[in-house]
Amino acid sequence: MRDERWRDVTLGDLGEEFASLSATSGRFRARAWYWRQAIAIAAGTFGAGISAFLRSPGDGFMTTWFHDARIAVRSLRQRPLVALIVLATLALGLGANAATFNMVDALMLRPFPIPDVDRLVVISENSQADPYPKETVSNAAFLDFQRDATGFPRIAAMGWWDVNMAGADHPERVGGQRVTPQFFSMLGGSAQAGRLLQDSDMVAGNDKQIVISDGLWHRSFGARRDVVGSQLLLDGVPHQIVGIASPGFTYPDGTELWGPLALSQKDAADRTDHYLTVVAELPPGGTLDAAQSQLASLYERQRAISAEGTRGRQVIARPFSAAMIDIGMPQILWLWQAAAVFVLLIACTNVASLLIARAAERQHELAVRLAIGAGRAQIVRQLLIESLVMALAAVPLALAVAFAAVQSLKSAMPPQLVKFVAGWTHLGIDTRVVLFTIAAAVATSIVFGLLPAVQASRTQLTAAITDGSRSMSAGRARSRLRRGLVIAEIALALPLLVVSALSAVGAQRFASGPQGYEPEGVIRFRLQLPEAQYQTPAARANYVERLLEAGSAVPGVEQIGTSTIVPALSSNSSRRIAIDGVAENPDAPIIASFRSISAHYLETLRIPVTSGRAITSADLADTQRVALVSESFARQYLSDGPPLGRRIRIGTTDQTWATIVGVTGDVIDDWFANRHSPTVFAPVSQVPSATVTLVARAKGDPAALTDPLRAAIASVDRSVPPYQVMTMTDALHERTTGLRFIASLMAAFGIVALVLAAFGIYGVMSHFVVARRHEMGVRMALGATSSQILKLTLKQAGWLTGIGLSLGLAIAIGLARLMESALFGIVALQPSLVATITLTLAVVGFLASALPARHAARVNAAGLLRR
Amino acid sequence: MPDAPYLGELEHLVLLAILRCGDDAYTVPIRRMLAEKSGREIARGALYTSLDRLEAKGLVRSWLGDPTAVRGGRARRYFAVTEVGVDAIRAARAAMTTMAAGLETVLEPRR
Fold first, then answer.
1. Average pLDDT of the segment spanning A348-374
2. How far apart are CA A545 and CA A561, in angstroms?
3. How far apart are alpha carbons A197 and A158 in whole angstroms?
4. Which residues 31-90 of A are in CB contact (within 8 Å) with B?
5. What is the rounded (10 degree) CA torsion for B32, B37, B39, B42?
6. Rounded to whole angstroms, how far apart are CA atoms B102 and A122?
């Protein structure tokens, strides 16, 4: 209520009148009257109360704004349909942005729920030879940094340590990490039972201590309290469980057990093997630059110690969140955000054209306001506030759209992938999203509201008041704006459609197009030989031999083979390659993917041998050393002659030359950094590995081989459990989930854009045509025929469409080029696709102008002029 | 009386209603009087605003009466027209009369 003094009086008045009314008309009617009065007072004085409150600080600024907002609400309620369309359009545009912002925010800006994550940095020895930056450091370099880098209060290292675990309910393969003690406290891990790792565990000989994750504790140990202190065989070596990590702590990437990073004296001095991930903490208020320069000077000292380990490398400290995010993730997220912004811009164009149409209808009202003394600035402000009110009203709807979108994204992502996407679990609408959406709404209201508002305030007084629709001078500016909108609408829609179609089609093609092998009918089993039992190359080669023997005896197996790495796997293995007769460049060594394969492996997967021969069972440890290379390897490194008969050296430790006896077709191993990567194959008999993947082609359903092959594998060695057992089709499907995810999201953006743009183009075009009906009438009165009018209108509309399309095409091609490089070649500019989309938009533009033009041309001149 | 404040039409009517109500001039009868005599149902808020404005101009003064049971223990707010208020009514009336003089043929109520 507007005034404290009136409050009691009003309530008293109501009570008194209620009493007299109930005496004359009965209690029931009196009660109804009372509530009607109370509600009317509340509604009537609520606004006044706020404005009184706003007035109190002393200036009228906020009051006028509030007053304008009330007028805005009223004028929107007068045209509910327009308001509804505007709200729906804005909700869609703002909602798409809220959803993508949520993803950018949760997955990229702060994906790790770690205390003080902003002070954490990742240190890496980057090499120019690496195809993409890896966050890795050698043992000795880490120890140096740990000892000498005083700029970091805390520093921790971790290294992959996947193990075969026996001693639980059943043997299985478990993802683990070797870490230093600071690891847990820096990354927010704590123990729910027992203890975490400590300095005394880091001593070689006392290092058989592990901490297990809450998930592993429940899954393999039935959540029994007494597992702390119990023994467990990891890769055949007994370890003691000293603690259980708190629920939810699975850093990094769903790790299930952590062991101490205890380095032998020999390992501690190693500077050539860069495999550790090193995380360091800046002091409070410390800067990245200061830390970086200290690291750089320390690294110069290390260069003096080991030229080989530091050659071509530089030490770099990067913010933790930026360094730990998946390769390609920022690009994809920015692509989505950019697509969402385009959707919003198209929505803005649609709304702006509606507002201009509305401003034309309100010309009379605005002119009257100008006449009774409103300034142009006041009119602009009033119209802008109407826009703001609309945009803000769309915020709840937009949040609902975003909520629905994020929910469906979350349910579309398979759980086995979720653990690799840092931050995925805390996707959801939160305060930051709400604030972002409000800010976006305010910005949006200016984008779509400013031009129409400025334009409307230019109303010519006399002309508008006498007869708004025939004012020619104001019409000229307005029609220029309309033309601009037609062009903008098309120029915005085309790039978004092109980019979304390209990435959708591109991703789809990679996920379901030719892979370079035939995944159908094949099942795979991953195996890891424990080093303790398989120390010698001979033992490993012997295992593979027995494995293939047992496997090929299983009924239903058509072909069987092994490789260290098979396609559609999340891991890779590579070696430094030397070519006989080619001088090695130590700064840019040749690094190629490496596969140690058995006879019949290529056959089993149907990887073609394009020249020479495959690996056979005649290639033995004591026969001539041989190798196969992929076509991409031959093309890239052996282009100066026929590859067959050339000699290569694989890795840095083995000095023997291997002769190239065959060339294989290229295989898509992974879709981002490593597609068609140059690959070298060697017989497993000559280069045995502890990493083995068994693949078997079935005569019938490959899944039916799961159990018989498991039994065959167990019969060779019970202590080597198969893991990640699945058909190649399923593996490929899982591996490409991310891609298909990108494809479907981009397709969704494309569809939203097409719908919005089709409506928008129709809207601006028809408005452009309709607004010129008067002119058409004049022309017809002067003797122009209907078909001449139609032709004239279509010609002008055609020009606008043409300009819009050329502008849009230029933007589209620029964006597509940008994406080609940013998205690792998923997107390739396909002229046919671009042409189809351009043509589609041209047709939409034509129809949007032809329909209203034909309608207008049919009406007679008198009818048009009378309007 | 050239210095008398200008009166809006509603203010004019409200002042007259207060005078007519005499000693019983509090909000409820004032509103009722306006409705009966002028045939205009005035919104409660509009009346209160108008009364506030009149008091601010010094044309009326107000005070709170004793709380009564029928009002749920709340007091009535009474109004009285001040000297200045009476002057203003006179001035408005005089202006009206002067303006209307000679227009009797037009202004006489039709039969």
1. 77
2. 10
3. 13
4. 37, 40-41, 44-45, 48
5. -40
6. 98
Q: How far apart are CA A602 and CA A609, in angstroms?
A: 8
pLDDT at residue A797 above 80? Answer: yes
The complex scores an ipTM of 0.81
Residue A57 has what pLDDT?
41
Does this model's pTM top 0.90? My answer is no
Closest CA to A125 of A306, A309, A262, A269: A309
**Separation of alpha carbons A283 and A291, rounded Å:** 10
Q: Are A197 and A260 in contact (CB under 8 A)?
A: yes
User: How far B82 CA sits from the closest chain A CA (Å)?
Assistant: 21
Helix (H, G, I), strand (E, B) or coil at A313: strand
The pair phi, psi for residue A345, each rounded to 5°, is -65, -40
Identify the residue whose tokens are 């964006």: A815
| Other residues' Cβ atoms within 10 Å of the Cβ of residue A498 | 26
Q: How far apart are CA A11 and CA A189, in angstroms?
A: 61
Residue A799 in contact with partner chain B when CB distance is under 8 A: no
* Residue A222 neighbours by CB under 8 Å, 6+ apart: A169
CA dist A127 and A592 (Å) reads 15
Looking at beta carbons, which residues of chain B come within 8 Å of A51? Answer: none
Q: Which residues pair with A805 in a beta bridge?
A: none
Q: Is B1 helix (H, G, I), strand (E, B) or coil?
A: coil
Q: Give φ, ψ of A811 to 5 degrees.
A: -65, -45
Cα(B62)–Cα(A203) distance, rounded to whole angstroms? Answer: 91
Q: How far apart are CA A480 and CA A461, in angstroms?
A: 20
**Helix-, strand-, coil-residue percentages of chain A, each rounded to 5:** 55, 15, 30
* Closest listed residue to residue A313, CA positions, set A130, A101, A465, A462: A130
Measure the N-to-C terminal CA separation of chain B; round to a whole number of Å. 36
DSSP A538-584: HHHHHHHHHHHHHHHTSTTEEEEEEESS-TT-S---EEEEEETTS--
Whether residue A596 is predicted with pLDDT greater than 90 in this model: the reply is yes
User: What's the CA dihedral at A221, A226, A230, A232 to 10 degrees?
Assistant: 0
Kindly identify which residue of chain B lies nearest to residue A19, measuring between CA atoms: B70
Q: Please state, in angstroms and as integers, the Cα–Cα distance from residue A106 to each residue in A115, A212, A422, A441, A839, following that order.
A: 15, 27, 8, 21, 38
The set of residues, in sequence order, having a beta carbon less than 8 Å from that of A297 and lying 6+ positions away, is: none
The residue with tokens 């708004």 is A468
CA A20, CA A47: separation in Å to the nearest integer? 30
How far is Cα A237 from Cα A166, in angstroms, rounded to an integer? 9
> For the segment A534-554, what is each residue's pLDDT rounded down to a tens digit?
889 999 999 999 999 999 999
Sign (positive or negative) of CA dihedral B57, B60, B66, B69: negative
Tell which residue, A389, A404, A382, A380, has the closest CA to residue A351: A389
DSSP A97-134: HHHHHHHIIIIIIS----TTGGGEEEEEEEETTSSS--
Strand A257-260 relative to strand A176-179, pairing: parallel
DSSP label at residue A283 = P
Of A2, A12, A44, the CB nearest to B76: A12
Q: How many CB atoms sit inside 10 A of residue B46's CB? A: 13
Q: Report the chain A residue with the minimal C-alpha distance to residue B44.
A: A41
B43–A10 C-beta distance less than 8 A: no
pLDDT per residue as tens digits for the range A1-29? 445 667 777 778 888 888 888 888 777 77
* Predicted local distance difference test score (pLDDT) of residue A552: 93
CA atoms within 13 A on the CB side of A336: 25
